[in-house]
Amino acid sequence: MAGSALGTSTTPDETESNPLLGLPFDDPDDVIRAAIAEASVPALLMSMVHMTGDMALLDELPGPYLLIAMDLQGAMSEPDKQKVRDRAFDVIREYRDRGCPPPFVPDAQQMRVMFDVMSAGTLTEEFVDYVAADLRFSDADQCGPVLASTPEQRGDFPVVVIGCGEAGLLAGIKLKAAGIPFTIVEKQSAVGGTWLANRYPGCRVDIANQYYAYSFEPTDHWTHYYSEQPEILRYLQDVAAKHDIAPHVRFNTAVTGAVWDEESATWRVTIRGADGRIEVLTSRALICAVGQFSNSVIPDIKGAGDFRGPSFHTADWRDDVDLDGKRVAVIGAGASGFQLVPAIADSTQQVDVYQRTPQWMAPNSIYHDAIPDGARWAIRHLPYYGRWLRFVSWWPIADALDEQVRIDPEWDNGGLSCSESNHAIREMFIAWMRVFCTDEEILAKVTPNYPPMGKRTLQDNGTWLTTLQRPDVELITDGIAEVTVDGVTTVDGVHRPADVLVWATGFDVNHQLGPINVRGLDGVELNAAWGDSAYAYLGVTVPGFPNLFCMYGPGTNAVNGASIIYNSECQMRYIMGCIDMVLAGEFGSAIPKVEVCDDYNRRSQERLRSMVYSHPAVTSSYYKNAAGGLPTLYGFRIFDYWRWTSRPDPGDYELRSAAGELA
After folding, report:
1. Distance, CA of 171 to CA of 574 (rounded, Å)
2. How do residues 334-351 score in pLDDT, each as one tens digit?
3. Which residue ranges does the record annotate as region Disordered (predicted)?
4. Given CA atoms 416, 421, 427, 433 in this order, what sign does their dihedral have?
5. Mean pLDDT of the chain
6. Which of these, 144, 206, 328, 533, could form a disulfide with 573 (CB 3.0-4.6 Å)?
7. What is the pTM assigned to this prediction?
8. pLDDT given at position 658
């Protein structure tokens, strides 16, 4: 593995500056005991090897016989976990007394042994480099391909980035590190993207925080395993401040359009400031980091604009509206409504929830849990513990449900499931729901009539069902006939008064550019070319649009257990490779070949058609476009995406001179 750190140790300076290696400590024994009691035992076991260099510990002590999704302890008996904890106390105390020396980093063979124990034999040779990079045993993911261009070439290649959410911020960090001048244009007032816009009560992430973080910026500041919006926003803004990105951002400024100028091989990007002033920026490349959740949707319901009280979408939350003692109508019971209603029910007089279709809930007992102080101490101080905790978070879910989401054409269960294994998931989900609800009427309303995972699967520890059983909360499944000046009337003629109307109705993910008009070769409009079936090679580059790069673009919405931040890192590594390919070859631009993009898109859609998201019982889903296609989804393995985006293949591209001629 090029650039590998295998078989080496680190210097004290590196330890002090790199939190994943563990910050030195001299805490007393009681602090160590508290940390061990609250730590993830599988991650603790691996950290012990880093503290001692003693591989025999993996023979001496029990390891997990299975890693379980959303369970940081894995499948281990209590006696086995106690054996590890007892030995860990001696190891950590001795490590402290030795002055917390640089941790041991395994060589290639030792690493494979650790992988085998930690994954209970599920991490095969195919995945070794992939996992080693994420654990930081290799610098492949952090550095990307070695740049062949010169600093002078990169310094003369200005880039405009649209959006400063997690993807745009990442783009700025990587461009800055490479010495490429850039400007980020952000329509909001600060860094954060969707985490700045979506600040409704209860808003939180549904990927474990150790995985929902930049691989190069691990942190121990999380207070919850699945953090709420303010904490994620603070993390993004802290990262931006650390890398001094703000001076490169034009806040409160919107991109209205961009036109490719073939003669100069540049993009002319039109922006509009908060004062309405129009300006044109010139760049050699354009990175579109607007994401798929930037255009909120309010459905076309009769009288939607007639309501006289406060009315707003969850993505445009009104901080000035006090919900205390109010009657609140929440239209929508998807992800945002699911999070919002339990968060406001204690303070409102009444909450009426209007549900079009129910969502499947996956059991997650720690979804709202705070991280104990001892567990945070372990992340901060124990070498590589936080990194192994990240592995425990993602390995059991990444690509793990491939069999369960595959449609078995021979399976017939009236559309309730798509295969035998998918049906087992259905039964498990229903059993979990019955733990928290004995009201058969409510259970009937919240149990979907389509296969599990066919739509976005929500996570719950019982909070949603418990809330729906409150006397001051009503779940309404009758269709809405109209919104009136003072409430909502359903098709059965029942009118329910409301003081506040909240639209929890999601986003238009199939038209992610929104009003931005991007024109490529021959003046072709990207929105027109895409229609509601957007496409891009690897979700990043688009035929006919030179030096245009998408992040969280078409076909990259990960429904296979990936963190969108992880996927963004893959995309930005690929984008840097494309830019370097243009510069090192002294080209003007790179455009993906039509046949290459078409083939990728065809294979992607063929795979998705064999998966549960395409099942005919899934009649309405934000995944689907008007034709029933799935242009937003990524259906391959995350491992494949990591491999495909490691570096661009010049053979996939038309490389043109600065004058626009094919090279």
Report:
1. 11
2. 999 999 999 999 999 999
3. 1-24
4. negative
5. 93
6. 144
7. 0.94
8. 78
For CA atoms 419, 605, 168, 215, the dihedral sign is: positive
Question: Which amino acid is it at 240?
Answer: A
Strand 500-503 versus strand 311-313 pairing type: parallel
Give the pLDDT mean for 59-72: 93
**What SS3 class is residue 258?**
strand
d(CA 321, CA 568): 35
Tokens of 190: 């600060």
Q: Sign of dihedral through CA atoms 116, 122, 128, 131?
A: negative
Residue 416 corresponds to which tokens in the numbers above? 């309730």
List 484's β-bridge partners, or say none.
Answer: 487
Are the beta carbons of 108 and 8 closer than 8 angstroms?
A: no
Q: In terms of DSSP H, where are the helices of 179-228?
A: 194-197
SS3 183: strand
What are the residue ranges of helices labelled H in 410-477? 420-436, 440-446, 463-468
Instruction: Find the range with the poorest average confidence among 316-330, 384-398, 461-475.
Output: 384-398
The DSSP element (H or E) to which 286 belongs, if any, is: strand 285-288
Burial class for 657, CB neighbours closer than 10 Å (0-12, 13-18, 19+): middle
Count of H-run helices and E-run strands, the chain: 22, 23
Distance (Å) of CA 292 to CA 289, 319, 506: 9, 24, 11
Question: Do 296 and 507 contact (CB within 8 A), yes or no?
Answer: yes
Cβ atoms 9, 109 nearer than 8 A? no
Q: Name the one residue in this structure whose structure tokens are 């200005």.
A: 158
Please name every residue paired with 458 in a beta bridge, in sequence order, or none if there are none.
361
Q: What mean pLDDT is predicted for residues 597-611?
A: 96
Residue 355, classed as helix, strand or coil, is coil
Q: Let me know the angle formed at the C-alpha of 611 by 606 and 614, rounded to the nearest 5 degrees.
A: 85
Q: Which domains does the chain have, with CATH numbers?
A: 12-142+373-394 (no CATH), 151-295+509-656 (3.50.50.60), 311-360+409-503 (3.50.50.60)
What order do you get walking across the sheet with 487-490 strand by strand?
Answer: 480-484, 487-490, 495-497
- Contact by Cβ (8 Å): 351, 473: yes
CA–CA distances in Å: residue 206 to residues 420, 441, 460, 554: 27, 28, 10, 21
